[in-house]
Amino acid sequence: MKKKYFYTVMFVLFCLTAQNMFSEDSGSKKNHFDSKFIEIKPVDFKKDSSFSLYADEKMTFAADCVFPFVQLKGAYRQNQNVYNFGASGFTEKFLPMFPCSVQVGNLSESGSLSKLKSPLLSGGNSPFSVDFASASSIYSSLPSSSSFSKPLSTFVQAGYKSKASKRKSAGFSLNEIRINGFYTPQSKNIAASTYASSSFFQNKVKISASFTAGDFFYQENESSSWFLSDFYFPDGRHFCSLSQITVEIPHYKISFSQGLYENAFGNYSSVFRLDNLFSIKNSSFTFSCYLNPNSKFQKVLSSSQTLLQDVIQLKSTFTHKFMAKKSFIKIGILAYTKMGLSENSASGKLSLGTQITNPLFSVNFYFYGNSNFLRNFDSVTAELEDIGFNFSNKWYFSVLSPAFSANSTFSFSDNYNKVNSYSKFSVKLAFLKNPKVYSDASYSFSTKNSNLSSQNMQFSISSTFIIKNVKISGSLGWKVDL
Prior knowledge:
Elements: H1 2-22, E1 50-56, E2 60-66, E3 70-77, E4 82-90, E5 101-105, E6 108-111, H2 112-117, E7 138-141, E8 153-161, E9 173-184, E10 189-200, E11 205-218, E12 236-249, E13 252-262, E14 268-280, E15 283-291, E16 311-324, E17 327-340, E18 345-357, E19 361-375, E20 380-395, E21 400-413, E22 418-431, E23 436-448, E24 451-467, E25 470-481
Parallel strand pairs: 1-25
Antiparallel strand pairs: 1-2, 2-3, 3-4, 4-5, 5-8, 6-7, 8-9, 9-10, 10-11, 11-12, 12-13, 13-14, 14-15, 15-16, 16-17, 17-18, 18-19, 19-20, 20-21, 21-22, 22-23, 23-24, 24-25
């Protein structure tokens, strides 16, 4: 039944696209398929073509060729005898209203497929990072020169993007629609997604919705027996889907997601996520919630074979920006908690920070702390797990751009009698003329029970030289244990 629902949604979105394309414009009786409707951009092969070469100290050699309709990428690492490649054909350069594409190779998937694999909230430490899950479709990208673990995959996309999406319309306007497909022959995983966005009331109200579904493989659970609470199940395949809707009005944005997963015993379980974003002048407030109400015995497996725990997550951030002389100053605070529904444990995070930005330099600093909570029948016991800070500073000069960063984390155990730590300090220098040169030097060390356990230094240097449409880049790096 869920697969039939998926195909029904795709058919309805296709019909909406056709209706929008053939409908009559309020100011003209002409058919939309005239020269004013179909925007065809001229192709400049010289401007829209480029060629890149790359090499590094790991004996990696990569090439990237970009043309108006095609992109080809490939990389080979000699000391590991591994390689990747990718080829893409697209119409966006000359038909921006119909962005269709086909990709083949060692592709990296993202977008709604990544959210289907891991729908949980991010547990990051920075109070300035916005963790908002807007409705999206499946995205795919060709492999980089450092990724050699992705299996061969195929990605296809057909879409429509309204030429009048930026114009203010008093009525309904269908802005964009996409239909995507992603297939991995090695695991025979197949997924598809639909996405549509529209606006109302002179673009003051924007609504976007997406639906992603697929058939995914999971491995045998061998670490179980009849005497354990973790039940045995053989290899198999299961259906997973993600439904998303995002509504945006002035000063407020809300997004709701529902993940539906079939477990190894044929039962379906749902997880839910809600994101809110308020913004008034120079202040913004976010509140997000994730809920998996299913017990651990229901075995909620994500599309990446990850067992989703029965937890509730709450996350909130607040930022305020003001100007002092020629600098923008932003202050931020983050609060996060994760509570197990079947376990008497929980964790919490609190982070405070500030950012200073002006035309000459930028500074970013935040401090955070993580705690664990144990719920008893009549009390709650709290224990500080770790504290840390992150500092970064960058200067913007015309030729040279130096930067400095430092971060440290201190973890505690045995009633704070044992202290472990990790610290890293790095200095970066960028030469911004052609050829561009980037250098990075860092020193890191860790302690165990307040004693120095390890330390090392890392160095790297990279350069990029551009001659018209040809880019040649390379990097060298090494690590020294002290």
